[in-house]
Amino acid sequence: MMRQLETYSNVEVRGTVRFFGAKRFTSTEIHSRISAVYGPHAMSRPATVKWCQQFEDGRTDLTDAKRQGRPTTVSTSDMVQRVEDIILSNGRVSVAHTA
User: Locate the Mos1 transposase HTH domain: which residues (predicted)?
Assistant: First the structure.
């Protein structure tokens, strides 16, 4: 009987997908094996299908692609003062206007 791993990385799971995909397992079989070893929340079925397709299309990188994240915020004393000045000059100013 297999034991479930308690700790793992996304890269490790993707490597498993790539390995079983190279051995011509179906995405359903791969997802079933991943769930048995890493647990049911390691990778969703749709994500397994997506990664199988990407590896079949020639992808070799296991890391996630860079994406835009949360916008950069600036909270310098100068910026805080500028926002305070805008709000004090017009109390009905919108948040969108101050941004």
Answer: 19-58
